[in-house]
């Protein structure tokens, strides 16, 4: 990976894995917990795919989609129940787990169960939430808001470091570009790493069309692997990618998710690109 000159990047432990620049970190899973059986099926299926490729991953699923376009959209099972389920999945499969939190109270609950607490992009400047997540001592993944420049993440890092927690990284997930559109700027990885922070790329949310379907978010899921390839070549530390057995039937963000049947091929390509640029 290309590291800006004179910059030393930290190694971030993520359960038995790490963000170290040697191998990319993959965060994989469905958008939302559609049912307990669905979560187990997705986790086991993803692990089978990654095992065949010799890769490790962090399993992701949301217990609550708190920022749905429509107030009547499906949200999930809730914090305590969802986090307990994720912990059970992680313990049985031996993989780290992550989910997004939306309030200081949720952060404290999730901190009892979850390896990586994710701060949603729209909430990345909410000081009380960021601090509460950091104070759990867990790894914190802050999604860079669609409204922030890459160099703005330094202020968020300062809030986390003030708690004594040095285990955090950022996720680039696109920047607002006019109405109902996002654009992913590959320069962002360099600029964030230049500040001394690890950064991964959210391939599926970067192809969203927020509110693009009127009462729900649209997207260009077929472009997620395209942007992921570019991001790995540009020097990101890993890739966040949502996947679903049948995206057309997903209860949240279906238009953006990568079909599970395509996941192995996509991951194989990303690993090959990473090996090429780090050779």
Would you write up a description of this structure?
By secondary structure, the protein is of the alpha/beta class. The chain has one domain (25-278): TIM Barrel. Helices cover 34% and strands 19% of the residues. It has eight helices and 15 strands. It has an eight-stranded parallel beta barrel, surrounded by six helices. It has a two-stranded antiparallel sheet with strand order 1-2. A two-stranded antiparallel ribbon has the order 9-10. The longest helix is centred in the C-terminal third of the chain and has 19 residues, at 260-278. The chain is globular and about 50 Å long.
Describe this protein with a few key phrases:
single chain, 279 residues, alpha/beta, TIM Barrel, eight-stranded parallel beta barrel, two-stranded antiparallel sheet, 19% strand, globular
**Quaternary structure annotation:** single chain
Number of domains in the coordinates? 1
General form: globular
N-to-C series of helices and strands: EEEHEHEHEHEHEEEHEEEHEEH
* Poorly predicted runs: none
- CATH superfamily, called what? Aldolase class I
Count every helix, treating DSSP H or I runs of 4 or more residues as helices. 8
The biggest sheet amounts to: 8 strands, parallel, barrel
Helix content: 25-40%
Strand content of the residues, in percent? 15-25%
